[in-house]
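Hi X.,

You mentioned you wanted examples for the new student's onboarding notes, showing what a folding record looks like when two proteins sit in one file. Here is a clean example. The first protein comes first, with its sequence line followed by its structure tokens.
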Amino acid sequence: MEEGGWFEYTQNWEAAGDDLAWPILAVAVRTDSELIYTGDSSGQLTTYTLNAPGEALDRQTSIKCAQAPVRRILPLQSSCAFVQTDDIVQVVADSGLRQCKWETSLNDAFVGAATSTNGTEAFVCTSAGSGTLLDLETEKIVRRATVEASACAVQFTRVVMLGTADGMLAVRDPRAAFSIVQSATVCSGAVSDMAVRDHSVYVCGGQQHTVQIYDVRNLAQPVRAVECDGLPTRLWAAESNLWISHEEGFVDTRSFASECRTMGTAYVEPELQDYAFISAFAAAPSERMALVADTTGVLYVWADCEEPLLSTGCVPDVQIGLNDMGQCWAAGADTLSFDDEHISLSCVDIPHAHEPLLSCMDADVEYDVGRPVSYVDAGVLGSLKMMDNVGYAPNPRKARRNQQPFGAHNWRFKWRDGVKDDDRELTQGRSKFLSQQRRYGHTPHASGRSKAALAQRAAEGNVPKHLQLMQIEYSRFGVEDFDFSLYNTTKWSGLEGNISNTYANALLQVLYFSPEFRQLTLSHCATNCPDANCLTCQLGLLFRMLGTAQGVSCHATQLLQVLAQRPEATALGLLEDSHGNVMITYAVLAQRLMRFVLEQASNECRRLEIDSTSQQPRIVERVFGVTQQSTTECPVCHAANSRESHAFAIDLESPLSVGSSSGLAAVLAGGSASVRRAESMARNGRNQKVGFLDLVSSSLVRHDTQRAWCASCKKFQLLNTEKRVSNMPEA
């Protein structure tokens, strides 16, 4: 390799199956980290980092962000990227999590997208001529406008520039409702690509072997035309060069210093396979590396040195040990530069200083790591007065002037102990925290609760300690450091209750211990379910977690988040508000949630059945459904109509309150107290007692009257209805 010459750094190719790879349609590089984005025609978004020359790239994440091809990737500043496909525009974090998205139909597909200079807004346009300004921070639509329907290239600075399929360049002002400020015909065919630097816009398109340069403030005439050796298809405006990708399969540059009159030093020409052409191109912000992708799924990485930097916002990792710091200090200012970013500031000598700075950590000094900070005295906070963002308070004379006690004196004993006196029956004097157990070499916990001791406590009428409500204390490492095995010696796992909507934990445990329903959800979770927010899939994942945790605490956060996204759940009031409050009792809430979960599972499992049009009961209905025979009879013409239905719950109804809502229809809303209150109402009203067997009997066979249309009489009649339970569920 010649000094300063460009060479092929590496190639990267990943097969999607049967030794075939999807064409890569979008490539991008972050400006603040060494991260490479690629998007292919299958909707897969993948991130890579560089490896040694000649070695494949290290894949970091790979997610299926859409079913349509990925058209454009625009990195943002907050460790995420704006991704455009045909039907979705979305913000995806570098970790692979989707933060927000906006959708459209394939009949009105997205054809262009661009982000603002600060990365807080984005402008997208569709094939039908609809333009939308999005606020990426608040995840809201700011403004909609009608733009050119044939837009195929978009740039967003202070104004929005649109290149159309008929060769026109339109400049629209977002501050003036996206009205056209300027427009001009820049090429004879479709605009292939645009690049913007300062007030200059660079345009290529049609069959012209030139790049037209326009002043965005005046599009009347081009400022200059840059002659190219091939047909330019893609442009990239970097800090010092204009990068041009040609249809013939090579990339060259023009220097901004010479106003694009002279060639740059970079030249990239990968050896493409037969019948392949360049499908995506990007230059690194440092201009030390170029990325070229073709239609066979190969990513070519070219560089001008063997240790290039992709971005300008990071520097190579330089590790300086504590011993090296001492040597650097002894060397003095003659060998170290004050402006060297790779050297710690504490190692640089300062004029008139004769000892190391306090920030220079000495290897021989012991540091009290983990010691908690002390709290400010309540009397001080009560008398605090703010002035120019500074608080002033009189000294309570509990400490010396301008001094604050440093933490608690017995904090190490506190973390080493980790238990209270009333917990020692369960913990046997051991720490509750795994970190302290490992630190002091404690052996795995063995339960010391004997059957004789438990029987004695039960005989005394006391609730055993392991069945009482426990108060979990967090260490500085959080809930993951808590040893739940001290309180749960079985293999069954519990669900954490420190998140919202945890009233559902008991119901989820009941469903988990129903073998038929557990096997159904686990089987459904293993299928290729097309619904991304499938409630049954989330139940299967939770049940798999409970089955493999072996007593370790689990949580249903993902399931409850999917439940919160269902509009039906919001309409039924199944969710708590932000303060954990509900409008109805938790008994009714649990009953509604039970019905909702079983109905959703029945509908979602029905989609994957072989014969979804069959009239046979669904799987969930056969296991949990109660078969009801509904009969309607007209008292005038005696015409009867009968049908069969399935229900997942039966309301208890008093025989003394048939046709009235004041009986025991809401008995589940208040437990035994509501039962006693309703029975008292029945006795006072009819002077007749109601037994539990009568209550169940009247609930299994319910009679009612309702005004409905009679097909025989050809008019509305007061019809007699009867709902009789014919079969009980299998579970």
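Then the second protein repeats the pattern, sequence line and then tokens:
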Amino acid sequence: MQGASRCIRRATSFFSTAGIRRTGQTTTASASLSAQSAGAVPVRQLQTASAATAHEVVHEDEKALRDVFDLPTKTTLGSRWYHQGQPTGLLMESRFVSPKSFKDAGKQAVVEAQQLVEKVLSAQTIEAKQQVVKCLDQLSDALCRVMDVAELVRQVHPDSSWQMAADEVYAEMFNYMNGLNTHVGLYRKLVEVMDDPECSRHLGAVEHEAAISFRRDFERSGIHLTSQAHSRFVDLSAGIHEQSRDFLRLQSQPLPKNRTVDVPLEHLRSLPSQVAMEILQTSRSHKRKDGATIVRLTPDDYAAHYVLRDCEDEATRESVYRIWQQGSSDAVGALESLLEQRLELAHTVGFESFGHMSLVDKMAKSPDHVDEFLRGLAAQASPQWSTVIDAFKAIKGSDVYPWDRDYLVSRQQMDNGALPSLMPYFSLGRVVLGLSRVFKSLYGVELRAVTPQPGEIWHPEVRKLEVIDEDNQLLGVVYCDVFSRNSKSHVGAAHFTARCARRIDDDIRVQGSDAGHSSQTVVERDGRRFQLPVVVLICDFPVPVEGSPPLLNWSN
């Protein structure tokens, strides 16, 4: 969750008590993968990025994994099963079959959470106190299984009715969650349990770590503050979250129509002919008194990329760069407000800055350490960078500016011979297959493509992968929504934890505690029942051409 300090949260391990291989709690996406691990072959041998070769052994399951990303989109499992049949519920959650049922799930989660809050506050006996940490973990999960999906839905779902329902659910639950984060009674009961040897000695290793995490976040949320300061903290947290969303939304909006650059047509002739033609077709133009044609160019990402790379006129590159990089007044206002609220929030809980507050329990520990680390990297890279800058100056014959970089890199590649494109080696399917092989080598787990059930995914292009171990046991599910489209917010590369792994057969019995649990979302190991973890991977890759596999460039 972005923008708020959330101490009522999940703090469980990945099936660590179930005898299943522990893979950790952090999802990492890598953009770089060696051609060998991806099963790639030299360019001269490569016919198509999705075709097997004599030098590549691909098993049937691996082929299915590769093809679900690389085959033409109309044949993917997602598009065949998106709308057909009785809906099973978004992300296999039977509560999420419609916007109305989604809102009902939010209300039920709050009811369940409130019952667990009351159990924590009323714990007096040793036996009841020993359940406090479990109650807090269950409380966190009950709320986050709905809140986290609400955040996902409003970012990626193409249906406006789902988006509005998600906005409503998230707003209501966010305020309730923030209230729990600063709930003095919950904090005092947790401290009481941790400081009581009779209670704490019965906590397992996972419960002990969860208790420490809960306590640390409570205290970082200003639990020691006065009632008035608590209220301000909650308001600031909500404001920061909304300002963050506003800033991201405003960043993704197209440039205003009045943000244009007048470019002589002659300066566009060095661009690729197709690009220049597209710019001319979408831009207005007029004749100057001297007869020159002036194109009124809107420097969006597409146009700016080619002008900065190929235009020989420095003044034009500078004008395009400055307009392209200039933020809208609304976006700048949202960012300034966000920074001011973050600083006030940090000061409210006794930190020098938001950076100090965010890093205190991280590996870096402080902004000074981060600054020292970055300056150290810069010092190490300085000799190589100076060589590059000198080479650029030699090409240009004068000082180098930011709008010169892409143009000079392109010139240097033309003079020295550009490296062959890596894209034919890295179709999306090959990269996913390569990652699966790496995971299997390191952790003994691999990815398997499966068919989503009706209503389980929110767009036909979403792919569903299962994570399985060496014994073919299901460990979790990954949904991949990786292609750009208008209905997605501009979140870039991100992942959402829709559901965490946790043991549920020993849950505290309250109204709604079995909500959303079904044979699809629960696995059994050694007589114990565990909630199946689910994550969603979001990327913004270009939509592939029908009949061709999606090829990834270096930045992808």
